[in-house]
Every structure is written in C-alpha cells, then in structure tokens.
Amino acid sequence: MTARLTAICFAAQDPERLAAFWSALLGWNRDGHRLVSPDDDRAIPIRFFPVDVPKPGLNLAHFNLTSQSLDDQQRMVAHALELGGRRFDVGQKGDEGHIVLADPEDNEFCVIEPGNNFLAGTGAVGDLAGDGPPEVGYFWSAALGWPLVWDQDEETAIQSPRGGTKITWGGPPYSPRIGPDRVRFEIEADEKTVAELLALGATRTADGLADPDGNAVFLRTH
C-alpha cells in the first residue's frame, strides 16, 4: 500500500479567512471552515492549520495557478486583489509572463501565463513548486506511488497517475529554512505503510513524520 496525500496544509493566523479567500479564488468548496476541497478529485485539497506567529519569510513552496488566456490571467489577478490578496515582490524584473501575488497572510503564489506546456491539463492549481533536492522527489514518488514526470538538472516533479496538480522540487540553490515548516503535506497511511516510509528515509516527529529533507508531514493513520 502507498500513502495517500489528503491535503496540502498552510500555516495561518486566521485559518477561516484564508479558507474563504482560496475557496472564492478557486471556486472550490469550504468544508469545516479550514479545508478547501475541489470538485475534481485530481486536484489536492488545501487545509489551513492555526499558528500564533506571523509568517517570518518566504515559504519554501508556493502554488502556480494556470490561466487559459491573457484576459483570463488578468481576471484571476483582479479577483485575487478584490478578495484581499496583493501583488508581491520576490525580485522579479517585471517582464516575466507570470504574475506574483500573495494571499491575505502573504503566502506567495503565481498566476501563470497561458500556453505553459508543463502545466497543460493540470487544472486550476497547476503545481505546488517547492524547494528541495532530487532525493526528496524520489522519496515522494515512491511514498505516494506517483510517477516522476520530470527529472532533469536536479529538478524533479511528480503527478498522480490520474493527472491533475503536479508537485515539483527546484533543486539548488536552496533557500534557508526559517522556523517551523509553514507548508506541509498531510498524508493518510496504515502502520505497515508508515514502516515502509521510515525505511525509505522518513523520520518520526511530534506532528507525524518528516521526509528525508526534513520537511514536516502531518500523518493520519488508520
């Protein structure tokens, strides 16, 4: 048995507010105030977990949202701003095709220009773009049973066999980890699968597990 990815989780001082923002932006359902769930089972639910401290720096992972046309891209940006998001500076030069924004608690995300072949057919959330070496991509490919769809120049990406949102790791240079992880996977696994994950290089933590790169993982067992 492989583990099942049940949500991508973001730390939030006001989980309900962020759930409302992302539900409205993506047109997804709110379930239990802190969980945002898509109608398409190829996409990955988003959960917000409470923390007491504000975000200290850039996240180590962010969403890339897709668009179907330049007008669609601008509509998505305008909608995000109307909902309480803002434009965000991560050092971009201004001539990039994508547009960098942040949600009401400054979680960065990009609205990607139309015609991006890598994200074609993935859905509204094209990918979760993260920081990490190839080994972490190999680990999660084995852990979830998701094939590698990219493995070049120390960059890796995986995607469910059903398609949908990709998860990518960009390779070096790596950003420093500042404080507890604010973007985490939530997985469901039985004890046999947990043992297999530990054999693959995961470690146990107070919250559940950490992957071989030290990324915290919420674990639901059954």
UniProtKB/TrEMBL annotation:
InterPro entries membership: Glyas_Bleomycin-R_OHBP_Dase, Glyoxalase_6
Source organism superkingdom: Bacteria
Q: Where is the Glyoxalase-like domain?
A: 8-112, 132-216
Pfam families per the UniProt record, alphabetical: Glyoxalase_6 (PF18029)
Q: Which PANTHER family match?
A: CONSERVED PROTEIN (PTHR35908:SF1), HYPOTHETICAL FUSION PROTEIN (PTHR35908)
Recorded protein name is VOC family protein
Q: Organism, per UniProt?
A: Paractinoplanes bogorensis
